Amino acid sequence: DDDFQLIQRTFMEKHYQEFDDSEENKLIYTSIFNEYISLIEKYIEEKLLDRIPGFNMTAFTMSLQQHKDEMAGDIFDMLLTFTDFLAFKEMFLDYRA
């Protein structure tokens, strides 16, 4: 959805310069990751609650983590960015490239 892409792109534009391709993870990555989770989770949860009465974001994210090796595709890769720090960091490194 266009709104989601705008939110994500704006967030990445704001923070991408903090990321580099070193093995060491900077302390600032944690606060950026937590901010991203709050922003993206809130957006997705609101959209899904509109469509699925009783939707539970916590159960959804736990299910994503449990089945991440079984999933493929851009949507699943994006969903993993708010449950998996390494996927999140990789997204920023790809954006920066």
Please outline the major beta sheet: none
Number of helices: 5
Shape annotation: globular
Number of strands: 0
- How many distinct domains? 1
Spatial gap, N to C terminus: 24 Å
State the helical fraction: over 70%
pLDDT under 50 segments (min length 5)? none
Strand content: under 5%
Gyration radius, in Å = 14 Å
- Structural category: mainly alpha
Protein name: ADP-ribosylation factor-like protein 2-binding protein
GO cellular component, one term: cilium
Function: Plays a role as an effector of the ADP-ribosylation factor-like protein 2, ARL2.
Family: Belongs to the ARL2BP family.
Describe what this molecule looks like in 3D.
This protein has a single domain, classed as ADP-ribosylation factor-like 2-binding protein, domain (Adp-ribosylation factor-like protein 2-binding protein fold), CATH 1.20.1520. α1 (2-15) packs antiparallel against α2 (27-51). The protein is mainly alpha-helical and 97 residues long. The two termini are 24 Å apart. Helix content is 70%, strand content 0%. It contains 5 helices and no strands.
Features:
mainly alpha; Adp-ribosylation factor-like protein 2-binding protein fold; 5 helices; 70% helix
Provide a brief overview of the structure.
The protein has 97 residues and is mostly helical.
